């Protein structure tokens, strides 16, 4: 920016359009999602003025882009920049990413389509970064992961990886693991089980099993109040559930199982305490870091008008008394 000032070249917030395919990736580079910057989900308004000084676009985590995404980017950039013939509206793009990481959800990955002109014919420079800075303090582990990525691990390497599994007979003890360690799970059901176990451990340390002791206010469960079941064979018939069925759902069913009509997942019983790490699941304000996949921590809830703490009920979780509020 300083250099542009010196050269008297206009530099504004659209001179370099910093984007990433996912909200979480966009947050980590102080950018926005590619979809938001280039109107993937809406009509193009008159945005030429805003983008007239754009001379570079960055699209990070390109492995998440499908062939359709790239074609849409090409179309939208042509339309926004009012240059319908020039590929991507004539603005150079830097795509960065690693195709051995995650692929697009429900689309064809770019490397699988030979007819994708926007990808196969328009890329004119390819740079591979070969220095791995991430593992500077543990180069042996870095090399092992590199081989894992390229060819798959050897038998000896599998043994080394397994020796680091927490809870295994050879691996480190749970008490020696840093409190900010994160779990990697294969499925959402595994994630739910770990989250529930962490919550119960927290209750063991902080809560009472005595019904006469007032539950602590730093912990709160939020219960979905309008759970109904869909009558099989009908399109729109829903029935209320009996208390017994509801209790089973609150106790044993989680966000990985419950979808609403719009296919969004919901936890029937959200278990929260002050400081609990959470993952945001919507792109609310990507430039303000409130983006899908970004981490945050629970500080408190804003009750709806007309609801107060006198509406809290006490529920039992593994025998511990916990505050709960119902949302409908
Ligand atoms: N040139 C460099 N000198 C020193 N450290 C660096 C350099 N480049 C990157 N790093 C460090 O290496 C780590 C990984 O960098 P970065 O997140 O940019 O890599 P990446 O390839 O984009 O990773 P990902 O695959 O997760 O997107 C970071 O901790 C970063 O600070």
UniProtKB/TrEMBL annotation:
Its EC number is 5.6.2.3. The keyword DNA damage applies. Keywords: ATP-binding, DNA damage, DNA recombination, DNA repair, Helicase, Hydrolase, Nucleotide-binding. GO terms for biological process: DNA recombination; DNA repair; telomere maintenance. InterPro entries: DNA_helicase_pif1-like_DEAD (IPR010285), PIF1_helicase (IPR051055). Its cofactor is Mg(2+). The keyword Hydrolase applies. Residues 12-136 form the DNA helicase Pif1-like DEAD-box helicase domain. It catalyses: ATP + H2O = ADP + phosphate + H(+). Pfam families: PIF1 (PF05970). This is ATP-dependent DNA helicase.
């Amino acid at each position: 920016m300083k250099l542009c000032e010196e050269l008297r070249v206009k530099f504004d917030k659209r001179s370099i359009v910093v984007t990433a395919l996912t909200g979480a990736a966009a947050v980590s580079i102080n950018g926005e999602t590619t979809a938001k910057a280039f109107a993937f989900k809406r009509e193009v308004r008159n945005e030429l003025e805003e983008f007239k000084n754009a001379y570079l676009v960055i699209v990070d985590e390109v492995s998440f882009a499908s062939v359709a995404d790239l074609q849409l980017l090409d179309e939208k950039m042509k339309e926004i920049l009012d240059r319908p013939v020039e590929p991507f509206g004539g603005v150079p793009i830097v795509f960065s990413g690693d195709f051995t990481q995650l692929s697009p959800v429900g689309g064809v990955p770019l490397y699988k389509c030979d007819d994708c002109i926007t990808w196969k014919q328009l890329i004119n420079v390819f740079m591979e970064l070969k220095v791995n800075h991430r593992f500077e303090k543990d180069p042996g582990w870095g090399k092992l992961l590199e081989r894992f990525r390229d060819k798959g691990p050897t038998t000896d390497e599998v043994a080394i990886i397994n020796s680091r599994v927490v809870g295994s007979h050879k691996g480190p003890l749970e008490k020696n693991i840093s409190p900010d360690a994160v779990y990697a799970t294969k499925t959402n059901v595994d994630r739910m089980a770990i989250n529930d176990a962490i919550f119960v451990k927290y209750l063991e340390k902080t809560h009472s099993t005595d019904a006469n002791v007032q539950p602590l206010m730093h912990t709160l469960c939020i219960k979905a109040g309008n759970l109904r079941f869909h009558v099989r064979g009908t399109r729109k018939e829903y029935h209320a559930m009996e208390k017994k069925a509801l209790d089973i759902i609150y106790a044993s069913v989680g966000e990985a199982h419950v979808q609403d009509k719009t296919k969004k997942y919901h936890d029937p019983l959200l278990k929260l305490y002050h400081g609990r790490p959470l993952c945001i699941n919507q792109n609310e304000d990507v430039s303000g870091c409130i983006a899908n996949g970004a981490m945050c921590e629970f500080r408190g809830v804003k009750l709806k008008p007309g609801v107060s703490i006198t509406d809290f009920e006490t529920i039992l979780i593994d025998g511990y008394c916990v505050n709960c509020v119902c949302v409908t």
